[in-house]
Amino acid sequence: MNEKRHHGERKKRPLPGSRKPDLGYYVIVTDAKETEKQYFIGLRDSLPKDLAHRLVIKVLPTTEVDSLVDKCIEIVNTDPQYRIPWIVLDRDEVKHFNTIIKKAESAHISVGWSNPCFEVWLYNYFKQPPVMQNSVQCCKQFSLVFKRYVGHQYHKSDTSLYQKLIGSGDEQQAIQRAREYFMHMHQRYPQTLPAEMSPATTVYRLVAEIRLKCPNQ
Description:
Blueprint: E1 26-30, H1 35-45, E2 55-59, H2 68-78, E3 84-90, H3 97-106, E4 110-115, H4 119-123, H5 135-150, H6 161-168, H7 171-188, E5 200-201, H8 203-213
Parallel strand pairs: 1-2, 1-3, 3-4
Antiparallel strand pairs: 4-5
Helix pairs in contact: 7-8
């Protein structure tokens, strides 16, 4: 016999977060052939073997940054399996930085941007980045921090970059630091555009999303 339900009682459902989100098929498009490439290859290779193929990195070093969004759209349309598209780019000296980000978002492409450069995101693995006005200064200061924490010289083409970061740094802290700084800047200066937010990055969103769906083993 079925038990009677009390008034207002509903059938129990799984608690939020009790079901592990599924790692979809990502395509990450960047114009950087060194640091970003090595970092994301390392992130991909850290995933379980049966899921690593779902993270595809497309490096387009000969592509003009302004056409990065169009190239990403082209890749997604060629293979619709890539349902979650991202572009990754640095502020550096890109003239139409804000326009590129806005164009990507309008095309439903997520953006992992860094200002002034990708090393801002890497810096968060060890500590909160200081104010850095340009990519040269950013790379120089990060190299010092990397040497202090890792015990090795920093090289942009280091194929073991990701392993060194998670081995000597803290990825969850990196996500938290980057998120808190971004939210602080956004709340305090709501009209500030990405090109004026430094040192800031949204790469943490991509890494956090992947790790939520596929935690470190």
